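step=predict obj=Heme-thiolate peroxidase n=309
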Amino acid sequence: MSVAWQTILTRLAFGLVSALMDGAVTTGILLWDLGLFLYNLFAPKLDMGTVVPPGHPGFRGQWPEFVPPGEGDSRCSCPALNAMANHGIIPRNGRNIRFRDVTAAIHPTFNFAPTFCVFVPRYIAGILGRSYLNGTFDLEDIDVHNGIEHDASLAREDAHLSTSQSRPSVPHVQELLACASGPAIPPSATPIKPSDTDAKLNLNRSLTLADLARVLSKRRAESRKRNPQYSLSTFHKVFGSSNSATLLTIFGGDLRAIHALLMEERLLPGFESFVRQPMGLTMMQFNGTVLPLELSVEGEVEQGWKALL
């Protein structure tokens, strides 16, 4: 057998084994997630003020010092990861971060279920062609277009229209905040203390699913018109809705916490995840918000027909 054929067969075999292993791991994660979802249905919820476990940054709302990024620091299109770096929960310079360390940090910080905390960093590692178990990355590495970063984001300008994904688009974030139509979050639902700036910045409101659907519809329509390289696959539409849905699930729609996250990429003193389930927000439970949100976005059916015709 020639060397060329040996190379071809080796690559085919490696591809098959890799696909089978990836499928097995993904299936295992989904079954694990189902188990956590069922456990959460019957287990008592966590009391307010106890969501972040003892010994972890943010316990009882006491987050490490917020330090904005300096020259040479790496940041990305994900405000949550940037906030974790700004508070020193992951390396402050945003560089040489182990994928497994991100998994370990996301759960206590935001109370996502362990399944989500494994699935997303593992997906990022796959995009970058690196090992989830042993690999590292800089935050800016994940901004490869149509990986984690995508067009029509509510907090970033499209990659084709911007030189950097590391900073928020202030006009887009302001538009998102302005659309909030829900009532203020009552003190009984969050340990975040009222601030003098809340009224000044008109933050005594909350985001609703209808608000997010409305602003997502507008953002996608405008992006199609302004961006000649606009692309948003079905996967990235759902992924974009997932990002938006965290504002309702993890942040409870609280405009004060959302403003701090999206504008400054920091966590307010007293903030803790609004998810009170002991095993955290499972992917199955999360989809109960993500899918209704995505299905409420207007204009997608019309765009689908245009693409077909």
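step=describe
Residues 9-308 form a domain with the Chloroperoxidase fold (CATH 1.10.489.10).
step=end
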